[in-house]
Every structure is written in C-alpha cells, then in structure tokens.
Amino acid sequence: MDKKHVLIFGSEGYIGLDLQKRFDLEKYSLICIDQKPQDQVQKESNKVYLQLDITNEEDQKFLISYLERENIEIHYLVYLVGINTMDNFFTITDENWDKTFQTNIKSFVFLLKKIYHFFAKKVAIVTVASQNGVVAHEDRIAYGTSKAALIHLTKNLSIDFLKDKSRDIKVNCVSPSYVKNESNQTLLNSHQGRTYLNRIPYRKFLEAKDVSNVILFLLSEKSDAIRGQNIVVDYGYTII
C-alpha cells in the first residue's frame, strides 16, 4: 500500500511536534516544514524536514520543486504557522499589522494556490486558529483579527473547493485556548496566568495532545460530514 503524504506547516512548534508522534509511519509519509531545522532538507525514516519560511517566495519555489522532484501527492495538510504580535489599537504599527496578516493568512492562501495541483483526489486540510479569533483579548488586535479571518477563510475555501468536481477537499479549523508548554510555563504559573485560569470554567489549560487529537479527527474519515467548521478546544473559555 502506498503511503499517504502529510504536509505539516509549522511542524516544530509544540502542537506540531506532538502531532508528528501520532502518525503511523508505516502508513504515512510526513513532510515537516518549519524554519527551525538546521539543514534545508533532512530525511529521517518516513519523515522529511524542510527548513523553509513559507512567507518567502524563494522558499515557496523550493517547496514546489521538491514536491515535483519527489513526485509527491498531497493527501493531508495541517497549517500551524502563525505569529502572535502583542499589540493593541494604540501600539499597533503598519509593519506589525502587515507581518501578522502576511504570515497568518495571506501566505497560506497563495501557497495553497501554488501547491494545489499536487492535491490527491481526496484531501483533508486543517488550519489552526485561536480562541482569540472567536472572542476578544487585550493586546491582540492584529493576531485576533487575523485568526478570525483564518476561521472565515476555512468556510470560504470549503465552498470554493466545490468548484473542482475532480476532487473532494475537506477543510476545517481548530481554535485552541492556552496550551501548556515550556515557553509559557512562567506566564501560566504567574498571577496573570491564574487570572486566565480562573476565567476557564473547567479550570484547566490545554496540553498539546488535546489539540492534536482534534486535528487527527478532522483529518480522518470519521469527520467527513464536517465541512468548513471551526472546532474550539478551550475547556469552555469562549462560552461564558
């Protein structure tokens, strides 16, 4: 049986690393795309790591040439790329606004256009937004707005992909709450972190696996009737 190819953009973040561990490499071939690997191409078993900045046109061309050279057919795609600029109305700059939207949404749209012809006949795509795209949060004017745009983009893509009768492309979104990891441990253990925790009805922060489990469900055939939806994973943060 031919292995199915999974592209993970933003593969070396905490969710991406957890997600990688959950694929059976006997059945799936992973193409992990991030800026963190040391070499532009690293191969490991049925995993390939590509050091790329998807906002960079030359890096996009490299990805396309790699997919062509390796004769890759894309079956699954997960978009975890995003930057979180901590600005409000009074502090936001043109530069930070444009960089946030370029990274969090524009690059994704136009990258999809460039790699579309590599799509298999059946494809599942999951984008990862944020609870900040669902409810407001202080100092997230560009980030929250860009994630709200990503949530709505998911809906539009789901309808637009119907124009291609030769493919069945399922696209959905996941919006996580605060995910515990090494980089935010100090914050979440601080007074500010306890304030966030007290706002969550179930008094729990997420772990990476909580998000990965939902992504895997949305990639699987078990979710075939779910189209253009945003699944909020937040222990109830956004419901009150």
TrEMBL record:
Instruction: Fetch the InterPro entries from UniProt.
Output: NAD(P)-bd_dom_sf, Sc_DH/Rdtase_CS, SDR_fam
Q: Quick check: keyword Transmembrane in the entry? A: no
By its UniProt entry, which SUPFAM superfamilies does this protein fall under? NAD(P)-binding Rossmann-fold domains (SSF51735)
Give one Pfam family.
Answer: adh_short_C2
Highest taxon above the source species: Bacteria
PROSITE patterns the UniProt entry points to: ADH_SHORT
Which UniProt keyword terms apply here? Oxidoreductase
Q: Which family does it belong to?
A: Belongs to the short-chain dehydrogenases/reductases (SDR) family.
Protein name from the UniProt record:
SDR family oxidoreductase
> What organism is the protein native to?
Pallidibacillus thermolactis
